[in-house]
Amino acid sequence: MAKKLLIVCALLALISTSLFAQYDMKAPLPMDPNVRIGKLANGLTYYIRHNAEPKERASFYIIQNVGAILENDDQDGLAHFLEHMAFNGTKHFPGRKGITNMLEKHGVEFGRNVNAYTAQDETVYNISEVPTTNPDLLDTCLLVLHDWSHYLLLVDDEIDGERGVISEEWRTRRTPSFRIRAQIMPVLLKDSKYAKRDVIGNLDIIKNFKYQTLRDYYHKWYRPDLQAIAVVGDFDVDQMEKKVKELFSKIPTPVNPAVREEFTVNPHDDIYFVCATDKEVTQSSVSVYIKYPSTPKEEKNHEYLKNGILQSFYNTMLGQRVSELLQKGNPPFINAQAGFGGGIVRGWSTYMISATAKPNEEAAALEAIYRENERIKKFGFTEGELERAKTNMLVGLESAYKQKDKTTSEDYIGEMQSNFLDGEPIVDFDYYYNFAKAIIPTITVDEVSALAKKHLNRKNMVIVAQGPSEGVKHITKEEAIAVLDKVESSNLEPYKDQVTEASLINEDLKGSKIIATKKLPQFDAEEWTLENGAKVVFRKADYEKDQVQVSSYSKGGTSLYGIDKLASAQVTDQFIGAYGLGDYDAITLRKLLTGKQAQAGVNIGGLSESVGGASTPNDFETLMQLIYLRFEKPRFDKEVHNTMMQRNYAAIENSANNPQKIMQDSVSMIMSNYSPRTLLFGKEFLDKVSIEQIEEIYRDRIKDISDFTFFIVGNIDAETVKPLVEKYLGSVKSYNRKENWVDNKVRGPKGRTEKVIELDLTTPKATVITSFSKEMKTSIHDNLCLNILRGVLDQRYMTNIREKEGGTYGVAVQPSSSKEPYESYSMSMSFDCDPDKAEHLKSLIYAEIDKLMKEGPTQEEIDKVTTILKKNNEQSKPHNAYWMNAIQTYYLRGIDVTDPKNFDNIIDKITTKDVKKFTQKLFKGADVVDMIFQPKSK
């Protein structure tokens, strides 16, 4: 196989040389002709494009070349504050929620479809997936962008009302990783303004700034010459351009505008070092960042496009070498990565080397991962590695080309945003496709290997150690540099690329025939029964052109095992993938699958197990082979198992006192009423895991194909699928077992359970979790009522707890229903807040439920939620995944979700009384778990 691959690639290189010659590498890249770009007299840039994915939808963005980096010291945090204020009153949409109330009436949901973000260099607002069937709505969305551009009201009371919300967002963001980052950035970006602006800002300023200070920032920086409008969707481009020009030209041209300064990071010859610690961090790591200037806008040409491909090859090949290290013997790190990353800040990129270390072994971890980078610098990659990477990229490129009509509007807008902010070229995919096909075969291993020599040096180097502040010894700057010196002066051996020429399956398979066929006209599908008892349900679906999905279902799962084997049962599917398959370890298997887009895996859940995967239509036979091997030739590799266990033990060593872990474990135990079957991940859990038990459980669960029903959905013909199903699924053994899951009687606590648990927290924060559950019959009608109730509660908690009280960044409302192992409904609410406000805010959770039980929701609330539900349901249909889910739901639950009587006919008739009645049925007499996690009393 390896020799054939090299010969084929050599021929491709000869053919591609002539194709490649047509490109002037220094020439600018042509702009995608499908994108309409213009600039108005007032300086505003616009991008418009037609796109029908999703169909009859459009997305509207305003991109501001403005962010936290432009704040004065007395404005620290106000760029982000201003982003919030854009939703609290504009010229044409006054009042808090004026914009969101209007949009949600059309199914455009706040959070999911309407949102914004602020970064150091930009602020971006979006209104996504807007129905295009209503022309007035499109005009309204343009008007919203128009108001965001220049007409925010910034009313005093609204500003004051948002102070509490952002203070709570500040609190929520104060995670261990945030605190670690706050220690790293002043060193990584030393002497730069980027080191001083973390976007969320200074809490004292957020609480106390003068109204005019915010308005000054707004009027100085929100202006058309620093803004772009991007509109992409299923509409007429000419009409949309006309509307954009007419509306946005009315925004006045700025007079004597402030200069939009571009900030940078200073280069340095010395090695910078920082050790960042936090008592809530559980793992140690050591990283090396090598900063280098990003490609200037004027040099983003064909050579730039080629360099992106070179870096992709480099990262892929280095990543595979690191992956091999992680599967051999006793790796010196828990995890590792290296290669070219994205931009660290505007104008600067990084080459990063990083390893998660075992406790007190940061030097060993750094040495191991740095050695692999140095090995590439000295010896480069091998021809075999590059040819595999080329083959896989070309195959992936072909697949992407077939799927290009499924490019979402958000993806196109992402390109527009990068073009406006960073000068990234917008290249038509057909052009890129032809360019890449021409250039990839001509790329040499020396070209890719040379990247290491160019970038792996000590100029602009920053070494970062991070981890727990207690109980661990961290590497020092001197020790880290000594490690680099040691590796660079050592006698390294070149990497040896072990290549095997083999087939996945070497024996003849007898297979078994399809003996019965059943039509499923409601799904345009068929059910086939094989001689060995396996059932296969097939539907051709070509919404995604280059995709085939396979799933399956068999009852049993981990419910069939006692506590003595439960730990092994719960991790079997996680470990089995690392062992390899059939005669090949995972490393060899990956090489054998070069050029194939097919993967198959196993899932063992609480009540069932499945074998499934995905492929392109061309590689469907490979997928079937992998599924056959998952049944008949699983692999259990003792060395790989021991390696994974060692990494797991190292990963948990400092987790026992982590507040987040304590909280998660506490919730698990309380919600299951301290069931002995609730196993907490830790040393005691890992001590119970063995490869012998994993093998026993796997061979018991992934066995007997007569107990499995398979579902195949994708762009492939039945005539192609049938013989492959007969050959591969038909060759799996049957035992004709009649299995079911076991109800182990794990239930939540009855009645009312209240817990207040104190944690040792760095940032004072309370987490409130309230859960209501009830065993009751489920129905399609009540399932819809549950989702409507969730939407109503979302709205009310947003209004009453986030906005009126300023009490939290947001309340998460999570509904669930279950038919197995028992029928039940539940609703849980959780949020973070000031510990002093926890009891009061929690009372509002109950108050809204009581109010809904007494009065029910309003018709306006129901209309909003049902409009959103119907829009999202309709939008999901033209996708293969929708039909896979529909067919599975029919087989597992007996419900045809495609039948209007099971959705449209019900949801259109649900009244306020229906939701009120369901609310009473769910909450009256429900079992309640009421938890507050709060800081320890001092």
From TrEMBL:
GO molecular function: metal ion binding; metalloendopeptidase activity
Taxonomy, superkingdom: Bacteria
Domain Peptidase M16 N-terminal: 51-170
Essential cofactor(s): Zn(2+)
One Pfam family per UniProt: Peptidase_M16
Any Gene Ontology biological process: proteolysis
PROSITE patterns per record: INSULINASE
Catalytic activity, EC: 3.4.24.-
Keywords: Hydrolase, Metal-binding, Metalloprotease, Protease, Signal, Zinc
Domain Peptidase M16 C-terminal as annotated: residue spans: 209-392, 689-866
Extent of the signal sequence: 1-21
Family: Belongs to the peptidase M16 family.
PANTHER family: NARDILYSIN, ZINC PROTEASE PQQL-LIKE
Protein name: Zinc protease
